[in-house]
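Summary for the lay section of the report: proteins are chains of building blocks that fold into shapes. Here we show the chain for Ig-like domain-containing protein and then a coded description of the shape we predicted for it.
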Amino acid sequence: AIQKPSLSLVLPPLSQLTQATSQAVAWLACVINGFFPSEILIKWKKNNRSIDASEYITGPSILETGKSTFSTQSVLKIPASEWENRAVYTCLVGHESLTIMKNISNYLYGKSWCCKILDQPRMEPRFNSTQCKLLLIKMQLPSFEKLFTNRNATLTCMMSLTNTSANATFSWTMDGKPANNNSVTNEVFQETNYTSLMYGRLQVNLSEWINTTQFACTHFVSQPCCLVFVNSGTMRPPKVDLQRQSSSEDFNITLLCIAKDFYPDEIFLKWEEENQEMSFKSYDTHGMKCDHEKQTCSLLSMLEVPTSKWMMGASYRCLVAHVSSENIINRTTNFLTGKKKSMPQFNCQVP
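The coded shape description reads as follows.
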């Protein structure tokens, strides 16, 4: 009797997907079984476009052991350059038992890898997670203040381990390419006799953070599970204005540093007095205000200056750093100039 085929996709082994060489190739298999008669047609599509037959190999129909039905498989060659493109691959099967071609689709990465994509807007707390079956993986992003102050910072992925997953490791990619091993560390901390916490850390510098679109951490326990942070989208540099006003008692001068019309919210602001950085206790920075529909944010910082210092000609500078650039925008004012003075942008990148 005629029997309809059943379909399944078999992902490439991890050893193929973790090769660093650009000449590497992975194989995606479409397994078809339980059909009769033996004649069958198999085709492949990528993102709903037909793939040339030279890119895949289809084996003969083989009689299944102890059954009257047949099985076969078709294997698609996928070059390394396409592994991270999140394309949809579809195996299509035509058979006498079917009125239309049967198909099965999946991602090489993405849903088949239990990946979660973290997109903007990115608001505090900067902590996200995804769950793969019984495993929970979390990612913590660096603060932009630390990135800009230290010129480097750390992304952290965390998961809880059981004794069955003690050999798990995290791997990291930046825009689909393996991160430098010298920038990656894995640590395991014992919680109980049965569970542990594993941390995978990736250290990045400011330039890498600004110029990298995707950061992904992946663990390899039973099935790959990954968390991808997309550091992309609209970027608007801030417009910075420095204003001053006198208090009603005239004991202090209030300086207002206003950053507006920027996006996203990754911004860092500080003050200097006579080119010396001031303590955070010396000024007040109001909470971030963002309209994510209009993709615009604003920030206000106030500095109280003793009138006596102001009258003596002390200079005050507001410095603003934003993720859209490695440059710092600064605005300077003092009593002697009679008005705020706009300084040119400068690059503070360490050689």
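Put simply, here is one thing we learned. Residues 110-114, 119-131, 339-351 have pLDDT under 50 and may be disordered.
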